[in-house]
Amino acid sequence: MSLISREHDLVPLRAATKAWFKISLQTFGGPAGQIAVMQRSLVDEHRWIGERRFLHALSYCMLLPGPEAQQLAVYVGWLLNGTAGGLIAGVLFVLPGLLALLVLSALYVGLGDTALITALFAGLAPAVLAIVTQAVIKVAGRALHHRVLIGLAVAAFIALAVFAVPFPLVVLAAGILGWVIGRARPQIMAKPQQAKQDDGPEPLISDDALHHAAPTPWRAGIILAIGIPLWLVPVAIAFALTGAESAFTQQGLFFSGTALVTFGGAYAVLSYVAQKAVETYHWLAPGEMVRGLALAETTPGPLIMVVQFVAFLGAFRDPAGLSPWTAAVIASLLTTWVTFVPCFLFIFVGAPYVERLRGNKSLSAALTGITAAVVGVIANLAIYFATATLFASSHHYDQGPLHLNLPVVTTLKPAALIIGAIAMVLTFKRRWPVLRTLGTCALLGLAAEFLI
Prior knowledge:
Elements lengths: L2 E2 L8 H12 L5 H16 L5 H12 L5 H43 L4 H29 L3 H15 L5 H18 L1 H4 L20 E2 L5 H26 L4 H12 L8 H14 L7 H10 L8 H12 L6 H33 L4 H30 L3 E6 L2 E6 L6 H16 L4 H17 L2
Parallel strand pairs: 1-2
Antiparallel strand pairs: 3-4
Helix pairs in contact: 1-4, 2-4, 2-5, 2-15, 3-4, 3-15, 4-13, 4-14, 5-15, 5-16, 5-17, 6-7, 6-15, 7-15, 9-10, 9-14, 10-13, 10-14, 13-14, 16-17
């Protein structure tokens, strides 16, 4: 097993930053779309990391609270360029969504109309379906090398899509089954011995490479000693300057807590956030959480960014003596800060341990099981995203153990269906680059909104 010997010699930091910036502009479609974009850029195009290496990192990120795609960006950035690379990748992953949602929140408060921007993004959403579909096909083809693993992926998909089993339980069960299968039939979980696929040159970080960083308690202690104050000091400053009852302090404390319990992605926690924001803190009026979620779904970056919309409206209406616009911007930035700083800490502290444990056959088998389940998770996210993109509404079907989210067929959006079909042709048949496809579909979205 080879060792990644020095922290900054894999990819020039300028080249990596440019790549992460391009990725950040394409992170539409929730986790499925974001994982698809990174897989295409980092694994297929740049050949910076091997497919199994990429999925190993993703499996670890799936175990963490918070947005798994953003944490995956931090992990791979750290592998390529050390701490600086992880910080750049993680910040750039969030930045376009932060700016876009900040603008949309201001337009919502000031004008109550975001038709132009939402029309632009409405063209992007169907295009992302093509990217997600491509990712599911590629990842499944490479990760599911045995029928047992295919069975795990299918079981994970059914558990999530049909029976609404909580995400953490699906991941935990996949890990346990992977460990058990690895003990009983290790050849199933082992990397298959087969000819190298003609995907291009050998990746810079091969499937067997290890990062050099030593996972020591001293290193972890230093990171936590720096990171935890950085995370919480802004909340303490808000408390000192505005008091315990201000929107700034309440939002800082509340969203610091939610950052630690968002297992299973944003959807798993948004109902709780909506209830507290509307009924307990009165930051939003009933129904506004749905509008904020719609805006977040059409902008790049993690869906959990909807908390920025919540903070913006709450502080605008309770500015604690500041200008409402100033208060709203400060609250948005504070909420974003306390939501995402823990993501960096989870990776910088935990990734070196995960790197060293890659040689552990039992853990490797467990993560292989989780990786198989991740294919089912991505497929489930893709179905959820497709339903939200192609249909104006859906309904929940609950009968005994069955819990299905079904589209209302009569609310099919013809424009979205046509744009999605065009995106499929451009992606699979014409093999257009992602940005070119997204740009074309964005223009089609504008045309559909204002010309038809």
